[in-house]
UniProtKB/TrEMBL annotation:
Mg(2+) binds at E774, D798. Catalyzes the reversible phosphorylation of pyruvate and phosphate. Coiled coil: none annotated. This is Pyruvate, phosphate dikinase. It catalyses: pyruvate + phosphate + ATP = phosphoenolpyruvate + AMP + diphosphate + H(+). It comes from Desulfobotulus alkaliphilus. Its EC number is 2.7.9.1.
Amino acid sequence: MTTYVYSFGNGAADGDATQAELLGGKGANLAEMAQLGLPVPAGFTLSTDCCNDFLSSGGNYPGELREQVQSALAAVEGIMGMKFGDPENPLLVSCRSGARQSMPGMMETVLNVGLCPATIPGLIKKTGNERFVYDAYRRLIMMYADVVMEKAEGIEPIDGMGIRSQLDRIMEDLKEEKNYISDTDIPAEDLKNLCDTFKKTVREVLGVDFPDKPEDQLWGAIGAVFKSWNGRRAISYRRIEGIPDQWGTACTVQSMVFGNMGATSATGVAFTRNPANGENRFYGEWLPDAQGEDVVAGTRTPNPLNNDTKNEQNAHLPSLEEEMPKVYAQLYEIRNNLEKHYRDMLDIEFTIQEERLYMLQCRVGKRTGPAALNMAMDMLEEKMITEKECVMRVKPSQLDELLHPIVDPAHEKTSTVIAKGLPAGPGGAFGQIVFTAQDAVDWHKSGKQVILVREETNPEDVEGMRAAEGILTARGGMTSHAALVARGWGKCCIVGAAMIKLDFKAKEMRIGGKVYKEGDVVTLNGSKGLVYEGALKMVDATENPRFKAFMTIVDRYRTMGVRTNADSPQDTLVSLEYGAEGIGLFRTEHMFYGGDSEEPLFLLRKMILSDTEDERRQALEELFPFMKRDIQATLETMDGMPVTIRLLDPPLHEFVPHGRSHQEELAKALDIDIDDVVRRGEELQESNPMMGHRGVRLGITYPEITEMQVRAILEAAAELIRQGKNPLPEIMVPVTCDVKELIFAKAITDRVYADILKTFSLDAIDYKYGTMIEIPRAALLADKMAECADFFSFGTNDLTQMTFGFSRDDTGGFMADYLDRGIIEADPFQTIDQDGVGQLIQYSVERGRKTRPDLKIGICGEQGGDPASVAFCYANNLTYVSCSPFRIPIARLSAAQAALKAEAGK
Ligand code: PEP
Ligand code: MG
């Protein structure tokens, strides 16, 4: 018999925190807390396997489930001293979703299950609080109708006509009619009538009665939680976060405790340390007389948990520390114990029912990049974690945030703040304001940089939030949906900027007396919660001593090398700052683009359009000093470190001049007619230039091109050696498919080498000769290729293009469809396709090293800075990865983490 149900409560549990895969994060941590003897309301968790069986069978529960639920429920009843569905002493439960990894607000929850006309009188008698009971009932109807009867049934009402919105409006109308300001002002009698109206509306709108049998409610809620795994929001979040579809969600059924039983009850969310900056201070928010949804929904500005959590927006509200000092002290102690036990920062949810504290959830908390770094370093200093754990505590992608721009403090000083809110997501951002998630997506697609402004965000907005540079909301706290999601992504975000008044119809916002319309530009400082008009200057946030100290520790555990792809002296300098150990790819064609390229480009064009070898040799001679100068500057900057210089690669026609004036200039220089220039250019056109006359093929047709470049490289090195320097050039031949190509170019190299040694009276130049592996045939013949190569470098841009047959310049048109339809899981031009391209890499590493055991092997395609690809390269014994300068820290950390994981046998 399969076990689908796992109980917890009363100091014991069937599972523990290590079982998130099976019990979801929520279920696993509730089990752990129960085992620790913390005050956790008893309950049980239906496993993710159960969800997957349910979904794959088209919505049928596994045969043995009912019996397992019955007995788990009986155990809960025993612990709580109440009975589900009992008219005298009814137990109410919540049904909560919980995947292996937290997906904030993306799936469903139903509270107060078990409340119905049969159990209401008993609960009123027991609590003596009629208002509370009817408030709980109206919440159940609203949630259940929305989640179970509408969403889980796949009903998609038009905007604003969903059952939840309709019921919300009825309640708002009642409040307006009777002049009630807040929900808590509605008295019992009105709530009772409201419940009747709600039920009538549910029948009218959805055509079915609200189920008033506790048993039906329970199974309806469980099914809806499971189905919410395949809800639209959850699917889109999974796509963005790369969460596999087959994980499924668990469903935790737990006895209800109530934070909405009056002034001595409350609910709250806290972090054991500050999740925005990592400070070691207990940090949180709470709401008196409320249920959990009220805090996360962002509809009321929550109170601060303690003094440390006070800020401009909430300083006037009483803290829990002040209001209920005893409960706060107990919570504070739990905070300390939980941190000690988990040895990490936790995100906790609690409820206080009539001054009694209950823990409803704990999980390792999401944090910004800066917070992750600070916490890891603090915990290391506090001796809470080891150095190795410290290295594992920061995700490579979080380093990206640390290197993200911030608003220039000098520019801020001279600018006026137009609005203030809570600093929910780090860094700075500016852009044009838009007011709907859809507009954010559309404007972003058309190349605009936008700031998404919302009253508060909800999970439906995720795609728009993703597309925006920054997010600004008028309501909500640090634990509201927008704040959680933005923090998770490291996106600049400000919430609860209450002075912003939004008018969605007019697509504008008003701050004080001023109106800002859609398209107006604002700047956000997400680290401080400040909004400015216009676009402020941004600066890099690199000079952080903590970051440097962390990277030093990282390098202690890294075994694979990290180099950079740098084509310009500027890139080279930046790469050294970020810790490059060499250059893995220097693309010589860079000197023909951008500033200062006019003269070399003219000479290159002259060379391309030459008709005879003589003409070509002359042009090459003129080009030579430019080539040598660039190479020499780079070798000098990287003195003592290897620099892989690639011979010319791109299709020649890319450089053919099209403008009349350039054509005329060339005609004059070559002493030919302009029509000849045009004709020669046309002759170079190809149908498939990516597979045309490029790379080594140019040197096969025109050996003098190879000769000139090799001479530039070796002569540059020889001159540096004469100056007492230690240049380490590596000559790399691109787009090869056969060892004979390598042998051909090597013969030229040998000749030039001998010549230069003689000219400079040197005994040797320490240089290497190798090839890119970027054509499948080269990968398949790696053993042969290694016969004439000291090193390989995987050009995974071309290797991916040639393996998939996807043109790397044209995938924009269809890649999104492949991803949306799940045909491929990730863009192979961003992360190595381990199944296909990966096999070629693995095969060539093995074959190449069989021929030459000391073969140096690297990767220089774009994927070289992607954490998963770095881990793959480590697993396949590559000597180094090479990536763009800004991704070096990410690659260093990914490589260290891969080594530590391998050591731990993971
Ligand atoms: C490659 O193909 O992966 C590569 C690094 O070369 P390029 O992108 O210049 O073709
Ligand atoms: Mg290439």
